[in-house]
Design brief:
By secondary structure, the chain is an alpha+beta fold. Among the domains are: 65 residues, Roll (PH-domain like); 45 residues. It has four helices and seven strands; from the N terminus they run H-E-E-E-E-E-H-H-E-E-H. The protein starts with a helix and ends in a 13-residue tail after the last helix.
Length: 207
């Protein structure tokens, strides 16, 4: 009896007591967010306000084009008053005829020995200058106004620069009319919300 008790005591003393498991109180790291839960960046819409148009001028300053008006030889007309502009290069037929007749007359007189060399050369040079002046001509600018008579202007110089300005003017005229139509449509769309509701009945006639 004593032997058994002693053996049990020895076995109990040789085994270390088990320590209780400690639970860490530190918070666990949260799981990474899934791709579906990540915030989506909302694209910033560009400004709907159009960029202002630059002011264009001709080389001689006779024509000035802005975003809202056209000035030709000091006369200013709004783009909303215009329907279109038209540029037509014009050649002066009278100067062509005078130049051709002068050249033909002096050449014939020189060949028939009616004129000396110096007067004949002077006449031929004059005829050539008349032809060159008629070839230069002018540029006729026609402004078509809404419900009114067209206005004409004569612009001297090369037709290339005037044609570019006329094309840009027509583009700005169309843009001005489109913007005015869009603004009017927006006002008409907002008008029913501000008007009182219609009762569907007509007011009694005044007797």
């Amino acid at each position: 009896m004593s032997t058994t008790t002693a053996g049990a005591a020895v076995s109990t003393a040789g085994v270390a007591p088990e320590e209780p498991a400690t639970v860490s109180s530190a918070p666990a790291d949260p799981p990474p967010p899934s791709p579906l839960e990540q915030p989506i960046a909302t694209p910033v819409a560009p400004s709907s306000q159009p960029a202002p148009l630059p002011t264009l001028r001709s080389t001689d300053g006779r024509l000035v084009l802005t975003a809202t008006s056209l000035t030709v030889n000091g006369s200013t007309i709004g783009l909303l008053e215009l329907e279109a502009v038209e540029l037509t290069p014009v050649r002066w037929l009278l100067w062509y005829l005078l130049g051709g007749m002068t050249l033909a007359g002096f050449a014939l007189g020189f060949l028939q020995n009616w004129l000396r060399t110096f007067p004949a050369m002077l006449g031929l040079a004059t005829g050539a200058l008349l032809l060159a002046y008629g070839r230069r001509g002018t540029n006729r600018l026609r402004l078509h106004r809404l419900g009114r008579e067209a206005v004409h202007f004569a612009l001297s110089g090369e037709a290339a620069q005037w044609q570019k300005l006329a094309a840009e003017t027509n583009r700005r005229i169309r843009r001005a009319h489109d913007e005015a139509a869009a603004a009017t449509a927006a006002l008409l769309a907002d008008a029913p919300s501000t008007l009182p509701p219609d009762s569907g009945t007509f007011p009694p006639p005044n007797v």
